[in-house]
Amino acid sequence: MTATRRVFLAATGQNRGKTTASLGLAAAIIERGHRLGFLKPVGQRYVLVDGSRADEDAVLLKAVFGLPDRLDVMSPVTLPRHFTTDYVMGRISDDLGAAVLEADRSIGRDRDVLLIEGTGHAGVGAVIGLSNARVAAMLDAPVIIVTEGGVGRPIDEVVLNQALFEKQGVRVLGAVVNKVDTIGHPQLPEVLSRGLAQHGVDLLGCIPYSQFLANPSLELIATHLEGELLSGQATPGQTIGRVAIGAMQAAHAVPLLRDQTLLITPGDRDDLLAAALEVNRHATDGARVAGIVLTGGFQPAAPVLADLRRAAMFAFLVPTDTFTTAKAVDDILVKTHPSDTQKIETIIDLVGRALDVDHLLSLL
Question: Is 330 exposed, middle or buried (0-12, 13-18, 19+ CB in 10 A)?
C-alpha cells in the first residue's frame, strides 16, 4: 500500500476562502479516483451533532462527499467559549496534540490523500499549543496558503504566513488567491504570479470572484435578521442573486427585479410589492424576485399580504429602517451549508477550472 499523501490548506485570515478551496479540491481528488480523507484538527466554528461538537467544515465535507469517518475523529479539537482561558490557566489537562495525531492516524491509514484544513492564519491556535504552523509540522503536511483578491494585501499576507510555516520547517507548496476579478482585471493572475515569485512562492491558481457565492440564502436572511416571516419559506438552498433597494417608483424598480433579487423596501410600499409579484407572475425563466425584506416595521395592506401569501413569496418583516437593514444583509457572514447545492456545484466548477490538481498532487 502506498503512503498517504497529505496536504494542509491554510489561509491568511478568516473568510479568505479555505472552505471554497477545500470543497473544490476534495471534489477534484475524488473525481480522479483517489480515496479521500478530511481532517479539521482545530475548529473554532462548530455545531452540535448527536451531542458532540464538530467543526462546521467537517460536517459539510462529510455530508457533501459521504465520507465514512466519525465527526469526532474528523474534528478532534474544538474551541468552545472560555476554552482558551481555561487552557492558559491550567484547567484543561487533555493532550490536544495527541488527539490530533490519533485522528490523523485513524483517517489517514487507508486513504490515498488526506486533506487537512486549518483555521484562520498560520498563528491561530498557538494559545493552545496547536497553531496551524505547528499542526502542519506535526502531521508532516506541506501547505497551500489561501488568500483573497487584490495585489498588495494578498502578497503581503502570504509572505507573512509563509515565514511562520517555514520557521516550523513546513514546506509551502504555493498560494491560491480567491475572489479574483479576472473579468474586470484580466492581468491580475500574471501580476500576482510575478509578485509572489519574488518571495519564492508559486501561484497555484486564482479562483474567480463570484457574486453568487458571496450572497446569502433566504435561510440566512431569516436566521440573522431580527424579524417575522409573513409569507413564503426561508429556503436553505435558495441563494440570492442580487440585492435591490426599493427607494424609487415601481416603474423604475422593475428593471432591477431580476436574477433572484432580494428586494429590501419599506413594508408600506404596496406599489413595489405589487410590482415584484407582477414580475414573478410573468417570468419565463423562474422567479426573478427571490424574496422581500419589509423594513420599518410596516406590515403590508391586507390585500397585498394576501397576494404575497398566495404567491408563496418570501416576505420577512423587520423593525429597522431600509439603510440599516441593507447594511445588516451585507454584513451577514456567508458560510456554505450542505443544503446549498447550487453553491457547491458552482464552487466545484470554479475551483476545478482554477487549479491544476494533477500538478498539485504531483508535488505531495
Answer: exposed
Mark whether 244 and 149 lie in a shared domain. Answer: no
Give the number of other Cβ atoms within 10 Å of residue 205's Cβ: 25
- How far apart CA 133 and CA 61 sit, in angstroms, is 22
- For residues 306 and 344, membership in a common domain is answered with no
How far, in Å, CA of 30 to CA of 266, rounded? Answer: 48
Q: Residue 12: which of 176, 207, 213 has the closest Cα?
A: 176
For residue 282, give the C-alpha cell: 410573468
Q: Which of 118, 150, 116, 120 is CA-nearest to residue 12?
A: 120
**What is the spatial distance between Cα 312 and Cα 250, in angstroms, rounded to a whole number?**
21
Here the CATH number for the domain that contains residue 64 is: 3.40.50.300
Which is nearest to 256 in space by CA: 270, 282, 275, 274? 275
Mark whether 198 and 94 lie in a shared domain: yes
- How many other CB atoms are found less than 10 A from the CB of residue 336? 19
- 8 Å CB contact between 362 and 7: no
pLDDT in tens, 229-271: 999 998 877 888 888 888 778 777 778 788 889 999 999 999 9
What residue numbers bound the domain in which 347 lies? 5-210+337-362
Tens of pLDDT along 132-148? Answer: 999 999 999 999 999 99
Task: At 293, give phi and psi (nearest 5°).
Answer: -105, 120
Which residues lie across from 163 on neighbouring strands?
A: none
Distance in angstroms (rounded) separating the CA atoms of residues 38 and 115:
5
Strands 314-317 and 228-231: antiparallel
Q: Is the CA virtual torsion 178, 182, 188, 190 positive or negative?
A: positive
Phi-psi region of 259 (alpha: psi -120 to 50; beta: other; left: phi over 0): left
Residue 193's nearest CA partner among 175, 179, 178, 180 is: 175
> Do 280 and 289 meet the contact criterion of CB atoms below 8 Å apart?
yes
Whole-angstrom distance, CA of residue 159 vs CA of residue 196: 8
